[in-house]
Amino acid sequence: MEVNNIIYLRAxxxxxxxxxKKIFGSNNTKVVDIEVTSTPVDQPTExxxxxxxxxxxxxxxxxxxxxxxxxxxPISNFSITSSTALQEIKQLFECISSTPKIQRSLSLxxxxxxxxxxxxxxxxxxxxxKDSSISGVLTxxxxxxxxxxxxxxxxxxxxxxxxxxxxxxxxxKGLKFLDEASIISRGxxxxxxxxxxxxxxxxxxxTPQECDAWxxxxxxxxxxxxxxxxxxxxxxxxxxxxxxNLASFDLNGFSDPFVIAKIEQQQIRTQTIYxxxxxxxxxxxxxxITKHDGYLSLLVWDEDKFKTADFMGxxxxxxxxxTANEEMTMWLPLAPRNSKDxxxxxILLRLKYIYAPDEADQSVNAIYGQPLESLKTRQDICTNSxxxxxxxxxxxxxxxxxxxxxxxxxxxxxxEIKSIKNQINTNPNNVQFNLASLHAFAGAFKxxxxxxxxxxxxxxxxDNLLSKTKNLEIQPIIEIIKSLPPSHIAxxxxxxxxxxxxxxxxxxxxxxxxxxxxxFGPSFLRPRVETPKTLLEMIVVNxxxxxxxxxxxxxxxxx
Length: 559
What we know:
Pleckstrin domain-containing protein, GTPase activation, PH_domain, seven-stranded antiparallel sheet, alpha+beta, PH-domain like, C2_dom
């Protein structure tokens, strides 16, 4: 990797700050204040200050020695408590700043990037918590279990999500949906909040007034959630820009992060950025939206070639919190699933949410949104238990779309997609297919499966299929598929050979079996009720649908 930055370092002072490892007590730790002058090629010079620890400086020394053979540094180990510490660090930085090889080294650039990101993240987190419906330090206890009692900095964001952070370093320790939450008891300085069937938390406040304020804020959340439950015709467009300060999962001290973004049975996966804790993706996405009260979910994973990816954190953004028709760029903190997760860092996103209320009534003769088992009884629109329109879609795509780049990945125009849906619902035997609207027809095809009341692989088989992922074998999958309703099997017999043709042309259309599973997996295989737990299972859903697509020829011979 070529590095073009020229970096100069100057030690300003050594100072004491409150220890980030101590939530209680007054332990202090020493840091070095550094002025950094960075001059990237063809860009203006940037000057900023960071505070770095003894550990970070010694890591820098070690990495420089590994990267640059036979390099001479004035010190090999830095002790910040030494009486000559400031003099030693000044000598080190003078050496670094006057040695061109070190100035341009990958080690130095990664050190500056990491320390600058940590500094910016600390400021960002303060602003993130400050910009809340309510925030404050509460004592939190799960399910009345005293062993779980902890002091947390709690914050309600968007009137939809309860975040909680460690008090001192402001690291996100978790989040809870408030959509189904309810206060089940309260006292003068406490309230008990139920957030799931078997999950409740008791929060204790310092004063009765603070308790009243929290209860009032939670009541406001219920009103916001109710108001946001409207149907819309919309689209969310965005860019997953970059992340900073991610956790290290690999022995080399880095991770191999990628992101999955998901909403309404639609998802995209970014490329993997290898050996990085500060990855840049710059990947665009676009999702069609029908429910204003939905959440855009982003999950970060560490790729592993030999086992399931490691979870690195999640972000949830309620659509109603985004200003309509306005592009917004924001940093958001990653949250863990539970207290055992190793999660840290933030993600930078650019989002634009465009929508209008959708008041269209569903026709009694509609095709979209109807069970396949019901549609097969309508002989005017079905042949051999398969909706005729699906056969027409497949024929159109096979003739015109096998070599179309991103045929199912590139999002079509939402207005066109709705128009095609209305045509199919009102006059399914006279739909006018046209090549100019290929991606809109692809969008309407995907929408058919997203709107099925019972998905293609059925709610009943969701847990059964997920249980097979530990040791994926073809025969158990065949037996499960054979147990599906006849109309579902008939549709699979239509689309699996078609998907095989798409994958065979992946060098043109960029849609291999992995990409097809990312696009169609969430609509083909989904739980009856989506929960935070099932949201995290999406990567397993992708593995199962990919396995089915890869083995479709064998499966079709036996069903």
